[in-house]
Every structure is written in structure tokens, then in C-alpha cells.
Amino acid sequence: MTIRPYQSTDFEACMTLFKSNMPKFFLPEEMPDYSRWLENYQKGVPYKAEGTEAYFVVEENGEMVACGGVFMEMHNNLAGMVWGMVDNGLHKKGIGKQFLLYRIDYIREHCPTCKIRLDTTQHSRPFFEKYGFEVVKYTENGYAEGMHRYDMILGG
């Protein structure tokens, strides 16, 4: 497994990963937001104007199997996970675990005292709980009907 920084040539593969996770983990109506986010990232337009960010891809045997990013607001002592996903056909094979730990380590290296936040659905909440994330807010149907939102934090 190789983890490397995202490159503009990864765009289509990331979109394919996104589609593989619809509709259980991502809603089809989120696809334009993700596409726009990737395009802005490629142009250097930050997710958070006052923070720093990084986006990564994971390759196995020359194929992209996951992608996801982080942002850090050092002045707020806060970091977050953004647009993380593993190819739907490769869930429960350890890729998500290794990639999550990589992103946590990346944040800890650059912002050792940052609390790490993310938001996710009921489908991914148990995965993040295994690694110490705790639910700080629950919003029923927070993304759409039947897609509940869990705001979670690590180090809080």
C-alpha cells in the first residue's frame, strides 16, 4: 500500500471511488460538491482560508483504492478529516484503518495538540469509534432522509 499526495491526474479515479460508495456512504447530490472541492484543491483554493490542508490517495498494485484529506487550523488547535473514502468493494480489508491512522499521524506531526473532528453517517460511525472518535452531536436526517449526521471528535 502506497500513500501519496493527490495530483490533478487522480481526479477521475477519485470520482470513481466516490461513485462506488453511493448511495450508502455518499449521496448522488453530493457528487458536484466533491468534484468542485477537488477542482478547487487542484487550483490551490483552500477549504478553510485560515488553515492548511492536504489530500492523499492510496494505491495498491498500481490501482487507486482510497483517497481522503485533512485540514488544520493551528490557531484554533483544531484539525479535521475531509472527503475520505475507500473503494466500496474493498471495505473491511484494513485499507481504511491504515489510511485513517496515516491521516491522524499526519495531523499529529503538524499540529500535535489539535483536536481532530469529522462528520459522518450512521454507516461509518462505528468505524471511527473503534479509533477513539466520540460523538459530540447527532442530527437525525442531517444529510438527507435516512442519512443521519454524527459530528465526532478525537482528543476532545
Task: Explain the overall architecture.
This protein has a single domain (2-116), classed as Aminopeptidase. With 156 residues, it is an alpha+beta fold. Helix 1 (11-20) packs antiparallel against helix 2. The protein has helices at 11-20, 31-43, 95-110, 125-129, and strands at 2-5, 52-60, 63-73, 78-86, 115-120, 134-144, 147-154. It has a seven-stranded mixed β-sheet, sandwiched between helices. Helix content is 28%, strand content 37%. The mean pLDDT is 92. A hairpin with a 2-residue loop joins strand 2 and strand 3. The radius of gyration is 15 Å and the shape is globular.
Mean pLDDT across every amino acid position: 92
Indicate the structural class: alpha+beta
Q: Major beta sheet, specifics?
A: 7 strands, mixed
CATH superfamily membership: Gcn5-related N-acetyltransferase (GNAT)
Classify the oligomer.
Answer: single chain
Instruction: Return Rg in Å.
Output: 15 Å
Calculate the terminal CA-CA distance, rounded to whole Å: 30 Å
Can you identify the CATH class? Alpha Beta
What is the N-to-C succession of helices and strands?
EHHEEEHEHEE
CATH topology group: Aminopeptidase
The helix count comes to: 4
Number of strands: 7
The percent range for helix content is: 25-40%
